[in-house]
TrEMBL record:
Species, as recorded: Rhizobium mongolense USDA 1844
SUPFAM superfamilies, sorted: Glycoside hydrolase/deacetylase
EC category name: hydrolase
Name of the molecule in the record: 5-oxoprolinase subunit A
HAMAP family from the UniProt entry: PxpA
InterPro entries: Glyco_hydro/deAcase_b/a-brl, LamB/YcsF/PxpA-like
Amino acid sequence: MTCIDLNSDLGESFGPWPMGDDVSMLPIVTSANIACGFHAGDPAGILAVLHEAARLGVSVGAHVGYRDLVGFGRRNMDPSSQELIGDTIYQIGALQGLARAAGTTVRYVKPHGALYNAIAQDAHQADDVIAAIKAVDPALALMALSGAPIVQQARSAGLTVVCPAFADRAYNADGSLVSRRLPGSVIHDPEQVASRMLRLVKEGRFTAIDGTEIELEAQSICVHGDTPTGVSIARSVRDALVQEGVELKSFTHG
């Protein structure tokens, strides 16, 4: 690959409780997955992040999740279709309004946490999220787990699908993410993360947690901003790619 997108989950602070360093992360990434208030984020904080993203020319996406502030959207849930479609439309619509006020536009949707993992395999919940996106704007792209059934399911429904590689997360041999409940699920060493992402971009593969070599479709690299080393990791990944002549560009820019 000669170019790739670099994204991060931002806008997740809530009132006086900070989450991540959005100000430092925004100049590094090319796309920002902005919380929509259900798993994290408050309107004033989200609006501030959107203003800065607009100023820097960073592409914006709706980071929709389950209605789960206490669990940070990482607890499994089983909402009805009516609930999930309504909640997803609500979150996208809220971010669209805030984005318009900030002078930018929502261009894609990236489900968060437990919802992201659920729709990767659960065709019913995937259908609900796809239906919600299409009801709001069929031109919105969907970020979905590489190699999972959701990718073809969404493409068959007419959506553009972008597959991210998670820079700081360990993968199982089947291409799924290692559960955060297990040791080694999150990688904190910036140099290690940068090395594996550079290899992914150059070779299309990297090493799973059990030592297996896996191939992964990826048009974007995601760095989590809610970890203490998030900014350092993002900067290391960006520097490593740029030094190798890889152009960093949002997938929404064509």
